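ok trying this again, last paste got cut off
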Amino acid sequence: MLELYHAHISTCSQKVRLCLAEKELDWTGHAINFARGDHLSDDYMMLNRNGVVPTLLHDGRPVIDSSVICEYLEEQFPRNGNPVMPASAYDRAKVREWMRYIEEVPTTAIRYSSFNTLFIDAFKQRTPEQRQAQIARTPLRKELYKQFGKTGFSDDAIASSKERLHQALERMDQDLQKSEWLAGAFSIADICVLPTIIRMEDIGLEYIWDEFDAVQSWLSRFKKRASFNMAYYEGARVKPGMTNILGGEE
């Protein structure tokens, strides 16, 4: 039995939902409410001591970290649905090369504009003591939350994050000019970066890939896959004016 503790708009949760859909696996969902602090509750922290989403339970055993979960699903269910890792060791290494880059560059970069858009109103309503209390309870990325503060990230931090997103899109475009998918065949690499691209689209940053035709074609292809609508159901995308979501891990 597969159970997924996830949040509807969490980009990391979206990665795992995409992978579950590609593998055509049935699962039971448990929605984590950030506003209620579910992700920092004692019960949830027993499953995921990082206090982030998602967490996969397979027959009661937890697997954490979205990229790790995606690889686990492929290894555990290799004959289900579509393969999301190639057969050869070399090709798998190329996928993991992309995965590492995605986690280090675009995944971290999108947090800045995403937090400023989605969480700023909630943080403004909190006293300094309340903000410090949440930071103290958060196991990961304490420095990121300290930088965020009451007024959000600085203009310089936002500009730097957008530059890193541009660099990531440029690198994607270079490889996508050679093949339809990032690492040749469709893989976890594509799954891992799509939620960042969709978040950019949802918060008005799609202009950053205007010059990258191959990225635009890749995105169009991905949106036609059955897994897209399964992972991005109603309520799973950020809508204009959505600015009062209490913190969680993106």
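PB: full thing came through this time. The chain has twelve helices and four strands.
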